[in-house]
Design brief:
α7 packs across α14. This protein folds into three domains: 171 residues, Porin chaperone SurA, peptide-binding domain (Triger factor/SurA peptide-binding fold); 109 residues, Chitinase A, domain 3 (Roll), CATH 3.10.50.40; 101 residues, Chitinase A, domain 3 (Roll), CATH 3.10.50. It is of the alpha+beta class. Strands 4-3-6-5 form a four-stranded antiparallel sheet. Strands 8-7-10-9 form a four-stranded antiparallel sheet. The protein has 14 helices and eleven strands.
Length: 450
């Protein structure tokens, strides 16, 4: 997707989703702030609030307390998601279903902005500039290259910047309202490690949520049950899970097809564990009840790994920015020169446009699964040491990769405990954020207009 490389040390950050900028930030736990600011990327609202007063109001699609969501906001978001879906090769539901999902997310965004205003939380331009610089650098791009890459995908830099501001605001709000209440005890870490001793199963899940208000009456519960049954009927009839999730789910990952990424059982909400542990790949669960609604999950994939070890890969690459065919042709010519005997490192130093690796002869840092774009990891996984990959493309450009070495590292006690703390904390943050956002909706006045 990128030259590389917004990427996390814990692989499960991939569930946060693909965005215009790339993957999650390199640097494991110290870069979590950057990770949060780029989730669920939506076009920034250009006039959602009636307070703004600097834009002529058009048709009102929803009233949210003292503010409104405009028809133009919905149309802008629709355009953005179509562009992003094309870039990711992802299918979207029909327009009527997409409108409902986008409008729902814009309402949630407005509620969060109102909560931030009440709490006196704001984001200054300098913080936005630093975040953009970080994202560009972690994608092995200069800020100018990053802007060009956004433009090549049809994404406005100003819209991206506005979005980043909104997500930074969301991050600070979650830190204040949710994260400060999260505590992980030493006993919880001990229990986590005991449950994940030696061989560990990991599950890649798809998810659909039918939200139910916390104070739902019998009629609302019955309506939710009927809706969940209709969703199951669509799945039974062969509709793709990702497409149904995008059209029907109330979850935060709806427009990413409900993809939750890779999880271990201890990283899942407890109510999902019994069902997931008994599922085979391709199975779809019955509706599972939690405090915030009904959940339907599918097991997309499953694997085992040794939790006390990590396989690491060392590779080098040549990168050319740009996804056009002429750039691909240039890369194939460079590969032919390497095959003919030219030194890989010399070619990388002279031609590679990856500023973080070119001076090192194209050599990348040792990486583990989940820390690089899928295309690059797949290329590396297919090679033996010393072997050269075919030319391949990620979202921001063309690559040729050479595998240098592989190794298995045994994780020390400190790293194991830190990973356990991180996984437990993220699970709690996710669950509490969902509850907090549902509470915002339950306490709000919301009127949907046709």
């Amino acid at each position: 997707m990128t030259t590389g490389f917004i990427h996390p040390a814990p692989e499960r950050w991939h569930r946060i989703g693909r965005i215009a900028a790339g993957y999650c930030a390199r640097g494991a736990f110290t870069r979590a702030a950057v990770l949060l600011v780029v989730i669920a990327l939506l076009p920034a609202s250009q006039g959602v609030s009636a307070r703004s007063g600097d834009r002529t109001l058009d048709d009102i699609r929803a009233v949210v307390n003292e503010s409104v969501v405009l028809g133009s906001d919905v149309r802008d978001a629709m355009t953005f998601f179509r562009q992003q879906a094309r870039s990711n090769g992802q299918s979207l539901p029909d327009d009527s279903a997409l409108v409902r999902t986008v409008l729902d997310e814009l309402i949630n965004r407005e509620l969060r902005e109102q909560a931030a205003a009440r709490a006196g939380i704001a984001v200054d331009p300098g913080a936005i500039n630093r975040a953009i610089d970080d994202i560009a650098r972690d994608n092995n791009l200069s800020t100018l290259q990053f802007r060009d890459a956004l433009a090549a995908q049809g994404i406005s830099y100003e819209a991206f910047r506005e979005n980043l501001s909104n997500q930074l605001l969301m991050q600070r709000l979650v830190e204040r309202e949710v994260q400060n209440r999260i505590h992980i005890s030493g006993q919880e870490i001990d229990d986590f490690l005991a449950a994940n001793d030696a061989q560990q199963q990991r599950y890649r899940l798809g998810h659909i949520l039918v939200a139910v208000p916390s104070a739902a009456d019998d009629a609302e519960l019955e309506a939710a049950n009927q809706r969940a049954e209709r969703i199951l009927e669509r799945l039974d009839n062969g509709d793709a899970f990702a497409e149904v999730a995008a059209a029907e789910s109330d979850g935060t990952r709806a427009l990413q097809g409900g993809d939750l990424g890779w999880r271990t059982l201890p990283e899942l909400p407890e109510f999902l564990v019994p069902a997931v542990s008994e599922m085979a790949v391709g199975d779809v669960s019955e509706p599972l009840r939690s405090s915030n609604g009904l959940h339907i999950v599918t097991l997309v994939d499953q694997e085992s790994r040794n939790t006390g070890e990590a396989e690491e890969t060392l590779a080098r690459h040549v990168f050319l920015a740009g996804t056009d065919a002429s750039t691909g042709k240039r890369m194939r010519e460079l590969r032919e020169r390497i095959v003919a005997g030219a030194d890989f490192a010399d070619i990388a130093r002279e031609f590679s446009e990856d500023p973080n690796s070119a001076d090192e002869g194209g050599e990348l840092p040792w990486f583990r699964r989940g820390e690089m774009p899928e295309e690059l990891e797949a290329a590396a996984a297919s090679l033996d040491a010393g072997e050269l990959s075919p030319v391949f493309r990620t979202r921001f450009g063309w690559h040729v990769l050479e595998l240098i070495d592989r190794r298995r590292n045994t994780l020390d006690e400190r790293e194991l405990r830190e990973r356990a703390r991180f996984a437990l904390r993220q699970r709690k943050i996710e669950q509490e954020t969902i509850r907090w956002q549902q509470q915002l909706r339950d306490e709000a006045y919301i009127e949907i207009r046709s």
